[in-house]
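Task: encode each sequence below as structure tokens.

Item 1
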Amino acid sequence: MQNQIGAPKGFSLTDPRVRAWLFQIITIVVVVSLGWYLFHNTQTNLQHRGITSGFDFLERSAGFGIAQHLIDYTESDSYARVFVIGLLNTLLVTFIGVILATLLGFIIGVARLSPNWMISKLATVYVETFRNIPPLLQILFWYFAVFLTMPGPRGSHNLWNMFYVSNRGLNMPAALKADGMWPFLIAVVVAFVAIGVMVKWANKRFEDTGVPFHKFWAGLGLLVVIPALSVLVFGSPVHWEMPELRGFNFVGGWVMIPELLALTLALTVYTAAFIAEIVRSGIKSVSHGQTEAARSLGLRPGPTLRKVIIPQALRVIIPPLTSQYLNLAKNSSLAAGIGYPEMVSLFAGTVLNQTGQAIEVIAITMSVYLAISISISLLMNWYNKRIALIER
């Protein structure tokens, strides 16, 4: 009888590797075929209806105004510029919302673990209230029930003679570029480089001698002193334009329109409720023995939380925190409910209605949100790897 032990296997469905390759090939063929069918069917329907496809419409004049734009804009500008304005407005809400929601969420999360009964219960009420109300309802509440009911510019709430809150929004001083801007930016870069060198030296010194160095205060001093020297030598990097009440509205400065305020506050309050629970669970995941060890070394509760508990809890906090950042960025599309000119309201709404280029407009909008989400994920994954425990 011929020995078949070393003989190569032929094509057989009983071989797991053959089945794996076969199923993958079939899946690819099905997906490609389905994609081609949808593409061909769409092209055929567009031709029958006389609708031209392509992105040439981006070069045409928009012909409508925009309530808020971070770059210069006139009604004669192109749809491509409208797209950029919508993108910047979306990024503005996302950036501000992420920072404020993180700060508020950490405060509420720590407050939920407070030994003070009142503080703990108030934090619990906050979490259970705001995370169970749909974000769109919260946006509508802040917009219609809070900001639109405020007095007009003449009766606006004055804060330190610099900030004016009315039903027109929040008017604040605007920073305008001055001659010392570039030297100041260079000084800031030099300060960060100096801080990096100082931290590296301090870590090496601690490893060699065991003597700690006050890196925080030294870094803060470098960050303040070096740019301050630039201001003394080259002058101020900016000059401030103050808002002034003229007639029935404010002139000068910068204004956050009510739609932006309502959207930012609603997303901040809503997302912070979830971040608070993430922070609370992350802190609870750290063994109580770590707290007892810190107390045995004479550390007070504040330094124990900052230097012992939070650094370890971050390894549990970061992955779900990334999901909340993604949710905040995607929830910004709810601004269409109050007319804030972000991507969905401005580009997938007004531009789509005017041009009729539904496929192109929706594809661009979806691609933008996909790019924003992937960028946030990559950044948070990079940070998560930086703080991960390295086994030896």
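Item 2
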Amino acid sequence: MCYDDNARPPMPPGANGTAHGEDLVLTATDGNRFAAYLARPDQPTNAQIIIYPDVRGLHQFYKDLALRFAEAGITAIAFDYFGRTAGLTSRDEPFEFMPHVQKLQLPTIFSDVAAALAYLQTNGGQGRSTFTVGFCMGGSLSFMTGTAEFDLAGVIGFYAGMSRNFGGAGTLLDQAAKIHYPALGLFGGADQGIPPSDVQSFDEKLTSAGVEHEIIVYPGAPHSFFDRRADQYAEASTDAWKRVLDFIKAHTH
């Protein structure tokens, strides 16, 4: 599990706008009903972002993160992965996520992403530059979305694992060369679950494929360093926020 129930995203530097959030239930084209959370800025820019949670699905960390993006002027929607197998139940810590993770299939995840994107586009987001960002498993899925045709402006991943095979679709390393949007990857140098060689291989595959990208590794930072409680990694978190917001600004039309 990437974040526990007490984890909260750090505050983005310089963001002082106001925003409002609401819980949603969205429906994919196959009829799947799944939970989502929308955060709207009171003063929106021309950017919007889809947030991919960690392996536990949509919980409070990601609702708060959506609000932090919205306070920076970026409309944000976070969505849950497990509507098909766990319904609309809570994703608080007692939720046993792994049996549901093992049933995930990339095409149905993309179907839910399409529903989230459609909701954004039909609720004021038509014509905005769309980004994805994810954490842990969600980081992998954010990058994998970059292999599909979603008309994105960029894909972002925090501590994206390289070895998970999503229902036979291959791993992130298998698919890296197929990413065709600008990419930003952020990793902890002391992450016990992601070997530095995997990060280097990901970087090299993107370079070989001609994908515009930037890979940042924070020396000494562990998995899940991006947490308001982790004072010792506050500098890394501030830098990560700055890089994410700069990346979005640079690729927003």
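Check on item 2: Helices lie at 60-71, 83-86, 98-101, 106-125, 137-145, 172-175, 196-208, 234-250. The two ends are 36 Å apart (CA to CA).
End of task.
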